[in-house]
Each structure stands twice: as structure tokens, then as C-alpha cells.
Design brief:
With about 230 residues, the protein is an alpha/beta fold. The protein has one domain (about 15-230): Rossmann fold (3-Layer(aba) Sandwich). It is built from 6 helices and 7 strands. The chain has helices at about 15-35, 70-75, 120-135, 155-165, 185-195, 220-230; strands spanning about 40-45, 55-60, 95-100, 105-110, 140-150, 170-175, 210. The protein has a 7-stranded mixed β-sheet, with helices on both faces. Helix 1 crosses helix 6 (about 220-230). It starts with 12 loop residues before the first helix and ends with a helix. The mean pLDDT is about 90. Guanosine-5'-triphosphate binds near residues 88, 179 and 211. This is Probable GTP-binding protein EngB.
């Protein structure tokens, strides 16, 4: 890939090298942060059970079975921290994890949306919980909206994205299970999803492709989460 410069721009190799070095340091800071203390705090079936909003929060949202709990585990390098399962509807409450000692941020593993097979009243309860949390949590710094790399954006994802746009809650689209498709297909899906992200005001322009299985994209995701918490 070549980088093109406008006529009036000067290519400054020193500035480019400095920026690359700063990014390497930030990646290393993020790696250290998540390899330090990470602890399960509590499960909140309703908003009233959430901890005091005293540190930044980053939430993992997405359709049921997209890989939210698995990604949280991969991000923190701890298998089994958040419970993942092949059965959709595994995560039923807002599961809260404290990161750092002293605590610098919280990760929120959310129930999935768009899961049609669960009993109607249960789905309604999850939906209420998800929407109330996403719209009303003052310390929520960014929502990671997870999208299965094989399937791309579905109607229910676009619905959540539009809701977040309206509520002015910043979010980033993260493709999951990138190990399950060929690199060419992944590139095509990324381009399509990126084009749609550009039309949503609260969406972060950069899309991340990840795999909890292989660890692909995890250094970038750690950096994105740490940076979002500091913003
Ligand atoms: N191959 C592959 N499988 C994955 C990946 N991430 C998750 N899975 C699998 O996908 C299934 C669902 O993963 P979960 O992490 O439980 O998904 P979830 O989004 O938390 O699901 P709910 O809590 O039910 O909404 C599990 O069988 C995981 O092992 C990945 O990156 N690659
Ligand atoms: Mg889950």
C-alpha cells in the first residue's frame, strides 16, 4: 500500500517514525493494562444493581452468539472470565468487570439482542435492560458493537446503531470470528461495513477485525478500549 501526499504536504520521515513509536508504546501500555488485575465485579439484572458510576465503562454489545463474552475473555487473556457458550442467550444480565488496581475502567458484557427463540417476556426484559443501560449510563465511554464477520450488519444492528446515534453514544464496530472466513472475504466485509459506518454520526470511522480464537486484532482492540476509556 502506498501513501499519497498532497502537493503542499511535506513527507516528514522523522514525524512518521515518531508517530509509529508512540503507537508502539500505547499498544504496550494497553497490553500491560489488560494483563494486570481484571476481576468480575457483579451481574446486574436491572440498572439499580449497577455499581456507582465512578470510572469509565466500555460495553460489549451485539447479536446473540456474536462472540461478546469470548472477545472479553480474549481481550483480557483470561479464558472463562466471562461465560461463553454455543447456546444463544448465554449472557442474561449486565456482567461487570473491573480493570486495573486501582481500577481504571470497567468492561460490561451485555446480553445479546435479536435472539428470537427465547421466551417473549425474557427478550423484552433484555431489550429494556440493554436500551436503558446504553442510553442512560453517564460513564459509558464507548460501545463496541460486535458483528459476525461472516454475516455483516443485520437490521437489528442498524437499529441499535441508529439508537446510539440519536443518544449521541460513541460506538465502534468490531468484526468477530475473523478466523471463520477467508482474508479476501474479510476485506470485502470490512469495506462494506466501513462504508455504512461512515453514514452513522456516532460511529467510530475505524472498523476492527478480530478473532477470539486466534487473537487476531486483539492488540488493536486493547489499544482502542484503553484510549476510549481515557477520552
Ligand atoms: N471460531 C470462533 N468462534 C468463536 C469466536 N468467538 C466466539 N466464538 C464461538 O461463538 C459462540 C458464542 O460465543 P459467546 O462469546 O458466548 O457469544 P455471546 O455474544 O457472548 O453470546 P450471548 O451471551 O448468548 O449473547 C461460542 O461457541 C464461541 O466459542 C471466534 O473468534 N472464533
Ligand atoms: Mg455472552
Amino acid at each position: 500500500m502506498s501513501i499519497e501526499f498532497a502537493d503542499d504536504e511535506q513527507f516528514d520521515p522523522v514525524a512518521v517514525a515518531k508517530a509509529a513509536k508512540a503507537r508502539d508504546w500505547a499498544i504496550e501500555d494497553a497490553r500491560r493494562l489488560f494483563s494486570g488485575p481484571v476481576e468480575f465485579k457483579l451481574s446486574a439484572p436491572e440498572l439499580q444493581f449497577l455499581p456507582d458510576p465512578d470510572v469509565p465503562e466500555i460495553a460489549f454489545a451485539g447479536r446473540s452468539n456474536v462472540g461478546k463474552s469470548s472477545l472479553l475473555n480474549a481481550l483480557t487473556g483470561r479464558q472463562g472470565l466471562a461465560r461463553a457458550s454455543n447456546t444463544p442467550g448465554r449472557t442474561q444480565e449486565l456482567n461487570i468487570f473491573d480493570v486495573g488496581e486501582p481500577r481504571v475502567l470497567r468492561l460490561i458484557d451485555m446480553p445479546g439482542y435479536g435472539y428470537a427463540e427465547a421466551p417473549k417476556d425474557l427478550v423484552a426484559r433484555w431489550k429494556r435492560l440493554i436500551l436503558d443501560y446504553l442510553r442512560g449510563r453517564v460513564v459509558l465511554k464507548r460501545v463496541l458493537v460486535l458483528v459476525d464477520a461472516r454475516h455483516g450488519l443485520k437490521a437489528v444492528d442498524l437499529e441499535i446503531m441508529t439508537m446510539l446515534d440519536k443518544a449521541a453514544v460513541s460506538y465502534q464496530l468490531v468484526l468477530t470470528k475473523s478466523d471463520k472466513i477467508k482474508p479476501t472475504a474479510l476485506t470485502a466485509t470490512m469495506a462494506g461495513v466501513e462504508a455504512i459506518a461512515r453514514t452513522h454520526v456516532a460511529a467510530f470511522p475505524e472498523i476492527l477485525a478480530t478473532s477470539a480464537e486466534t487473537g487476531a486484532g486483539m492488540a488493536e482492540l486493547r489499544l482502542a478500549v484503553m484510549t476510549a476509556a481515557q477520552s
